[in-house]
């Protein structure tokens, strides 16, 4: 199975290079965004909110036959704000706060 990974880096302005820290080694045990069928991640920076937002896609786990019958095989994930913890070592993600406006009354 293929997973999407991320690295934590420092930028060296003089050398114009990104230098990964030791938690972001380019090997099989790299840092993963998500533990499920998450792929094609894209981020963008919202200057008004001063945050970075991550979006991606998730596969459905049905058979190809079932996917054709229902007419779809994946969905776009919930947009998430992303940041690093205080130590700058752990990736944190949380659904964007605007999703709260979609909730209705508790039943």
- Written as H for each helix and E for each strand, in order along the chain, the element string is EEEEEEHEEE
Structural class of the helix and strand makeup? Answer: mainly beta
Distance between the termini: 39 Å
Overall helicity = under 10%
Give me a quick take on this structure.
This protein has 107 residues and is mainly β.
Tell me what you see in this structure:
With 107 residues, the protein is mostly beta strands. It is 7% helix and 40% strand. The protein has 1 helix and 9 strands. It has one helix spanning 64-70; strands spanning 5-6, 9-12, 17-20, 31-32, 38-46, 51-59, 74-76, 80-84, 91-95. Strands 5, 6, 7, 8 and 9 form a 5-stranded antiparallel β-sheet that branches. Strands 1-4 form a two-stranded antiparallel sheet. The mean pLDDT is 83.
Helices and strands in order:
Blueprint: E1 5-6, E2 9-12, E3 17-20, E4 31-32, E5 38-46, E6 51-59, H1 64-70, E7 74-76, E8 80-84, E9 91-95
Antiparallel strand pairs: 1-4, 2-3, 5-6, 6-7, 6-8, 8-9
Which features does this protein show?
mainly beta, five-stranded antiparallel sheet, 9 strands
């Amino acid at each position: 199975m293929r997973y999407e990974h991320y690295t934590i880096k420092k930028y060296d302005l003089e050398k114009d290079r990104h230098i990964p820290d030791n938690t972001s080694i380019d090997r099989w045990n790299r840092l993963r965004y998500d533990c499920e069928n998450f792929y094609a991640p894209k981020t963008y920076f919202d200057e008004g909110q001063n945050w970075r937002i991550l979006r991606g896609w998730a596969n459905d786990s049905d058979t190809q036959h079932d996917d054709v019958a229902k007419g779809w095989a994946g969905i776009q994930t919930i947009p998430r704000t992303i940041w690093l913890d205080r130590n700058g070592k752990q990736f944190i993600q949380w659904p964007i706060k605007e999703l709260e406006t979609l909730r209705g009354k508790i039943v």
